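Model it.
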Amino acid sequence: MNAIKPEFLGARLLISVAALIIVIAGLQTAQSILVPFLFALFLAILGAGPMQFMEKKGTPLFIAVLLVTVFFLGILFGIGYLLSRSLDSFLVALPEYRERFITLVHSINHYLQDFDLRLSADDVRSSLETSTVFAWAGKAAGNLVTWFKSILLVLILMVFMLFEASALRKKIQSALAVAIDVESLGEIAGDVQKYLAIKSFTSALTGTFVYLWVLLFGIDFAILWGLIAFLFNFIPVIGSIVASIPAIVLCLITQDLGTTLALTIGYIVINVGISNFFEPVLFGHRLGLSPLVVFLSLLFWGFVWGPAGMLLSIPLTMVVKIFLEHSDEFKWIAGLMGSKVA
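Modeled.
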């Protein structure tokens, strides 16, 4: 056999890289369409199970879709209402917290004098005024109308998807005019539903424990920190860390150092316990992802779609892994993406 020429391998590599760049650019360009579509798709996958259960019990399709939609509508607007109220109250109290933080800086300077070190209170005050965190908080509070429109778009897309879900398999068979492995499609949908349901449950559990823990220490806006912990738990690796920072800083400002350390330890125990011990038990080895794959997917989808991509990174990667598991040709790739050796 003739050896493959290096020039040919180099050309294939360049073509593959160029195709990848084009795909990434296309994903970024279509972000405003694809991100709401994917959020709606994952909500529809979550709602498909209860909807099919109600249909089997004799509930008309329209009523089943309506009940699922009302359920998700209540959850989304409930979270949005609690977030907006808590965030508004937090912004009102923000000037007081700034002054307390400046007082804390003066106290730290008292201990740093022995080491010929000093923090500038004026520089700290200036950085707080221009901090991207506070700017983001103000922007989030002022853009509730935009969030409202986005939620409505996602829910409308979800409704259409749910109406199509019951007849989708038959339509695929009819359109392609070939025998489709319906059982395989059902297994894929079931695995995706299982992952999304478990992740939503563990995120809600994380948010509940964080709320109770923060409330125990008397930290202001416990509901806000619980909701943030719930939402950021969908972002792997850095989500739980970022979600803990505001409450810990607020505790440091309003409480003593010992209380802050206890609060931090509680955050670590909750997040590590649920993410590293409880979730793997529920997911099992099949639905687990390698830590390297988790981190790479976070970087990739975060680069492509920003914060929305970070939220979607693990669900998207899990969907890819589940599809690969049901493919004889690419099943080995799914094995490499897994958290355990089969």
